[in-house]
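Please annotate the following for my students:
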Amino acid sequence: MSDIPRRKIIHVDMDAFYASVEQRDDPGLRGKPVVVAWRGARSVVCAASYEARRFGVRSAMPAVRAERLCPEAIFVPPDFVRYKAVSRQVRGIFERHTDLVEPLSLDEAYLDVTVPKQDLGSATAIASCIRDAIREETRLTASAGIAPNKFLAKIASDWNKPDGQFVLKPAMVDAFLAPLPVGKLPGVGKVMEAKLAALGIATCADLRASGIDALERHFGRWGVRLHELSRGIDDRAVQPERPTLQVSAEDTFAEDLLLDELEPHIRRMAAKAWAGYLRERQQHPDRIARMVVLKLKTADFRTLTRSLTAAEPPTSEQAFADIACALRERVVLPAQTRFRLVGAGLSGFAAPDGSRAQDDLFAT
């Protein structure tokens, strides 16, 4: 038998984080439907309080739709400086228990507490201690999932939201996952969910029954991964120093534009992304971006990305912007198609000799 202990992973997710910070700091907002977003036809929702969610308001939703769903909503412009300060405070609480903390965003993180700094008896007790400290020190609430791996811990943290936690023990995994809809699996969006439904696959039990070979024939390596997730398999380690995967900038226009009108906006976003890339290079000079990415969103909210891994990585803002603008030639849509958003980014980080600096990851 192996002497390696089974991992104990906690996924901590702050409850309606941005909106909760606003309600904490302004007593007049407590108990009311708060939407963190700028008002306007081009704005999207950054976060919604639970009072607003009851009306169907969700993050990433167009602000105008949120206003239609919840006419009584109180719109508050986001204050990321304040949110980052609270996030650092919460990170400090995590680090009392383990140095193996992998932030996913300002409001959630994975913790590996297999070998914790404090002996509290169990990962469940550690999660409770962390949530208690967050409530006492920040006056906010968090939910937690405790499981043998990252995938299961993230699923579990959503089970008793808000202000709750759920423990998924190894012996529970098979029965827990069997009825789980495939849409709950990371990376399975509406398009993939429809493709699976066409094959008669709606749950993890259906994925298992389909067999790994059949899934691989239909979806390649992604099919293999789906089969693994349906069985609760996830060997990814918690990465305290998660490398930057992409440096990018994007903007939503006041009015929709044609493809031929996008060049000045692409160059403007490239300038912002290049400045971020230079900061990244100062901290990690051994990581060079080799892929240029162009992101577009049509007026009807369809998102497109086009990318190019150049033989020689771009060495200047102008070279980067030139490639990003040229990628428009790969957009095959009717000439009258209008776009509401454009973004430019650099990714595919590698060492100077061309070897990959880290594994490629797909963030969901």
